[in-house]
Amino acid sequence: MSLLEFEKVNKYFGETHVLKDVDLHVEEGEVCVIIGPSGSGKSTLLRCANRLEEIQDGEIRLAGQSISNPEADINRLRQRIGMVFQSFNLFPHKTALENVTLGPQKVKGVDKATAKRNAETLLDRVGLGDQADSYPNQLSGGQQQRVAIARALAMDPHVMLFDEVTSALDPELVGEVLEVMHGLAEEGMTMLVVTHEMGFAREVGDRIVLMADGRVVEDSPPEVFFENPRTDRGKQFLSKLL
Length: 242
Ligand code: ADP
Ligand code: MG
Description:
The chain has 242 residues and is α/β, with parallel strands linked by helices.
């Protein structure tokens, strides 16, 4: 059994078939990088894993338990699957520390002192120990995104989903966010990462999953994908990067 399993997942928006028989198994501790052209279904796949979207057919399981089943306890599931988006979505009127303590206090019933202690540790871990009292508008985009990662980690998730988390950042701020993600990977976090950062994909990814038109068209280790892709779609995608 893999930690996160997508089996024959099909998703429609009205008449539009956006995920087509997607099979994907992510092992515990694995970093699975999803790449592919715009509109290929990458964000939708992550959103289905977090039940931000419903699927019409197939199944998604976390540690053997169905996520996609309508009876599943969504709140408990969402605690186990952290997600970070392209837009940082921090609460603007809360400090960095409060952004990180809010979820554990409200959703998990953690007491204030414990939540604060954990948040301080997490802010340290993302290199923002000295910004605990700053408000989002006092932080750079890269710093805000690192707070967003700390906020997701505060729920103690089993899996982290990252959807183009560096795409909205100025180029000089991309590295500091990727570095935090690299550290998480090294600590053994299971991660599903949608990104255009091919250096990161190659260095940190255990697997590269190429999506096109709602399907997984290649699923290869990075050294295979970037040197000798198995599929024509893979070759085509790579040739456009050069
Ligand atoms: P990607 O993240 O790979 O760019 P998306 O998952 O965002 O792709 O989109 C996949 C397809 O689903 C696209 O054709 C997009 O237009 C469509 N789509 C995404 N979200 C919605 C929505 N809420 N309603 C209707 N169509 C959507
Ligand atoms: Mg997307």
